[in-house]
Amino acid sequence: MSPSDLSTDGISFIVPFHNEETTLRTLYEKITKVCKDEAYHYEIIFVDDGSDDRGFEIIRDIAILDPHVRGLRFSRNFGQTAAMNAGIHQSRAPRIVTMDADLQNDPTDVPRLVSKLNEGFDVVSGWRKDRQDAWMKRFPSKIANAFISRMTGVRLSDYGCSLKIYKREFLEQAPLYGEMHRFIPIFAAWYGARVCEIPVTHHARSQGRSHYGTVGRTLRVLLDLLTVKFLHTYIARPMHFFGGMAALMLVCGFLSGITAIIFKLTHFRDFVATPLPLLTVFLILIGLMFLLMGLLAELLIRIYFEQAGRQSYRIQESIGLPVSPS
């Protein structure tokens, strides 16, 4: 594999892992077999998200024998999104496959993802139609997927499936922090990408335990969804949101104050015995707070755009990768 082949029509596999030493070598062998059977130009980037087992040593041993394999090691656990972001940032191919390291995703599904991408789609997402997880993980996930689809207009049955393939240009547009990796298809669709999903194999976990998939994460994902909606609508103009709320509060405060004055002048009712004075002050203060928050958000957005390229992680060690400053 030459670098030119990889950058022209290759595939970069991004595999984050955290304490998965028992599965890494098997996953490497499965990915390698698929790539050789399909004659892909490829690279496999394993990202160690702060593991305290021998996982990175295993990747180091593999990389010594196989130049297709590269590795990154975080100084601590920064999360799956940061791990994916680091791998994507260091990858070179125009097509990027993401997948979990626990062997629940099946690399033999990759050729079908590639085939669908070649039909003209920009993002192809895996759908764990026959998901091999406990109901306590499937049920909240199903609710969250339906809610996300309804809120965003991007209809996918399984946002949580890590097995996806992307065209690089749409990945580069997605903000990746928090739990945002699962929302990449949404950002891509908002930037004009053609997004689809296909059923993929999902194996029951046979070794270790889950480190990235928990029930409590569902709530955090839904909270991140609010962030996604806000970023999509107001990322370049936050004052439109905060200013609108400020205007609403100030108008309501003005009306409340006028009503109190009318009560006072007409002796219709003792306005001191009503909540109007307190309500007027409260609404005006809230309005001013929204206005100041809007100004602060505008300042932060300006800083954000001027400081583009800063990363939310720190790489401690790398194998076969030119690490840019983080």
Task: Quickly list its features.
326 residues; alpha/beta; eight-stranded mixed beta sheet; 11 helices
How would you describe this protein?
By secondary structure, the chain is α/β, with parallel strands linked by helices. The protein is built from 11 helices and 8 strands. The mean pLDDT is 84.
Short description:
The protein contains eleven helices and eight strands.
Number of structural domains? 2
In total, the number of strands is: 8
CATH hierarchy: architecture of the largest domain: Alpha-Beta Complex
Can you write the helix and strand succession as a string? HEHEHEHEHEHEHHEHHHE
Radius of gyration based on Cα positions: 25 Å
Determine and state the CATH class of the largest domain.
Alpha Beta
How would a textbook summarize the main sheet?
A: 8 strands, mixed
Q: Topology of this protein?
A:
Layout (H helix, E strand, L loop, with lengths): L2 H7 L1 E7 L6 H14 L4 E7 L6 H11 L3 E6 L5 H11 L4 E4 L11 H9 L4 E5 L7 H18 L11 E4 H4 L12 H7 L4 E5 L16 H19 L3 H29 L9 H31 L8 E5 L7
Parallel strand pairs: 1-2, 1-4, 2-3, 5-7
Antiparallel strand pairs: 3-8, 4-6, 5-6
Helix pairs in contact: 6-9, 10-11
